[in-house]
Design goal:
The chain has 336 residues and is an alpha/beta fold. It contains eleven helices and 14 strands.
């Protein structure tokens, strides 16, 4: 059951990525560092008869992309290249800087002039004819046999690249291998450090009161069970209007609003705005798998938004709640 749930979750993420509905958290980063970090994982994915070559350009310009999605691009393109070399071969990963002028973009629509960083992944495999090349980014299109994948790898890559304001081109001929070039606009902004991951354990649940708003009863009950097991006090509501009534009737403090985003009558963001009018210190955690444009613009979360994407595990929920609330000062509470 867990494996089936994981597969369904992965499939959903791939479909969201293709349709550019996946919420992204981009940061300024160095593609070279990401490739180096993923090198060990890539080696494990390749067979012994495939040689891995990496050529990283020195002084590579920085890009503004989602690091998790960049890893998805690398994994999907490496797996695609591996499967295109059933009898072995060579896989080359290259990075380089490129300055695109008016003449270049005229030959490469819909590219725009400016500085770009290129991530190229080339294989010496079987290659593709023109008819196949025109369809490779279609969801569920695959030249592999039954049971060899869902046909979403390259469509996922395409959706991710577009959502991160990038471009992707492919060159291939039968018997001559394939080269994918993923291009992102360069940025002069300073590189941002990756967000620190909260510790898996302990979650250190506290005495805080949390208002849980979720229109799906079984999801609502699951969230309540997890939070109560962590020691939190909970209030429950079926939707936004019910939540406003629950808050009005509750005389004590409400430390956190944990709410679904897409709900009937009132969405989660509107609910949060109304509650914060009377409860200035209220913290908000949105829980959603598909937030449409309520929380983000062009796929990027609005500043200050805290989001836990469905599906999630009990540990992920507990850790995210503690992160938003911030750990209680145990030492300050200890008796002298």
């Amino acid at each position: 059951m867990l494996r089936a749930g994981d597969r369904a979750s992965a499939l959903t993420r791939q479909l969201l990525a293709f349709s550019r509905r996946q919420v992204i958290v981009p940061r300024v980063m160095d593609l070279n560092a990401s490739v180096e970090e993923a090198r060990k994982s890539m080696k494990r994915m390749l067979r012994e008869d495939i040689e891995l070559n990496v050529a990283l350009a020195p002084e590579l310009w920085k890009v503004y992309v989602d690091p998790v999605q960049l890893e998805q691009i690398l994994i999907n393109l490496v797996v695609n290249a591996r499967d295109a070399m059933p009898e072995g071969g060579a896989l080359t990963i290259e990075t380089r800087n490129e300055a695109w002028d008016a003449a270049y973009v005229k030959q490469h629509p819909p590219a725009k002039p400016g500085n770009h960083v290129v991530l190229a992944i080339a294989d010496t495999g079987v290659g593709m004819d023109e008819a196949t090349r025109k369809r490779i980014f279609e969801p569920f299109f695959s030249t592999k046999g039954p049971g060899m994948g869902a046909g979403l790898g390259l469509s996922t890559v395409y959706g991710i690249v577009k959502q991160n304001q990038g471009y992707i081109w492919v060159r291939s001929q039968p018997g001559s291998g394939t080269t994918f070039e993923v291009c992102f606009p360069a940025t002069q902004a300073e590189e941002t450090a990756p967000a620190a991951k909260p510790a898996a354990k302990p979650h250190a649940g506290g005495p805080e009161t949390i208002l849980v708003v979720e229109d799906e009863e079984w999801v609502r009950n699951l969230i309540l069970e997890i939070l109560r097991a962590e020691g939190y006090q909970t209030l429950i509501a079926r939707d936004g209007m019910d939540a406003l009534e629950q808050a009005a009737q509750h005389a004590g403090p409400i430390h956190l609003l944990a709410t679904d985003v897409v709900m009937p009558r009132m969405n989660g963001k509107e609910l949060a705005r109304k509650l914060i009018e009377t409860r200035k210190e209220l913290k908000v955690l949105f829980i959603s798998g598909y937030a449409d444009s309520v929380l983000y613009h062009h796929g990027v979360l609005d500043p200050g938004i805290q989001l836990l994407q469905k599906p999630f595990t009990p540990d992920e929920l507990a850790a995210k709640v503690r992160e938003v609330l911030k750990p209680p000062d145990r030492e300050a509470q200890a008796p002298a």
